[in-house]
Amino acid sequence: MHGLANPARFLRFARWLTPLCLGLGLAVTTGALAYGLLGAPADRLMGETVRILFLHVPAAWLGMAGWMTIAGASVTELVWRHPLAAIAARAAAVPGAVFTAICLVTGSIWGRPTWGTWWVWDGRLTSMLVLLFLYFGYIALSDVARRDGGNGRVAAIFGIVGAINVPIINRSVVWWNSLHQPPSITMGKSAIDAAFLWPLLAAAIGFTLIFAGVVLARMRAILADAQAEARLRRKAMVSDPFEALA
User: Fold this and answer.
1) Residue 25 near residue 208, CB atoms below 8 Å
2) What domain range is 223 assigned to?
3) 15 occurs within a structural domain
4) In the chain, how many domains are there?
5) pLDDT per residue over 76-125, tens digit each?
6) pTM
7) Partner residues linked to 47 by β-bridges
8) Which of 28, 82, 179, 204 sits most deeply, having the most CB atoms within 10 A of its CB?
9) Is residue 1 part of a domain?
10) CATH number, domain at 138?
């Protein structure tokens, strides 16, 4: 972690890791989704709607994982003052929000034929919607801190406090009477048939690699913007070329 505190060292590391994550993630995800849409059998109970699993489940996982990335980076920023921690948190916020939105949309599409409705104020659905609003709040706070030149402590604290919602999402189907099915995959066992389980895990790995590649690409873009802004600021401070020689 401390070895990558130097932005130049991080950029050398991210320059080759970004396309690797994106390329490998796209390949694995394409294969998993192709099998899920074309090769997987229909489920005995859910029929053809089971195919949305291969997008919905990875999106739900990455919606939660994205916020845990923000929380972990926020702790690193506040405790160890890591110079890239706030940038990592900002970079993870938008893709995390996108995956959360995909989870909600695909869940509604899945719920219509399964439950007979697009939306219910179920514990799992409601807590996932809260997560999307938390993402919006974090993005707004971090943008204000960047624009006003603040240190981002408020956004970091918000990122840590908001992590309380992640275990609520995870355990909501256990704690409350819920339309949403209980956990199908738990520690050491799975209730999902192997015909769906392995391509589902492949899709989760592929989307995770894409998420990592997007976060790295966004971190590189944020650092490039900061460097360009610093150069412009130095040029503005030295408007007279003779003044720079004084």
Assistant:
1) yes
2) 20-241
3) no
4) 1
5) 999 988 889 999 999 999 999 999 999 999 999 998 888 888 888 988 99
6) 0.89
7) 43
8) 204
9) no
10) 1.20.120
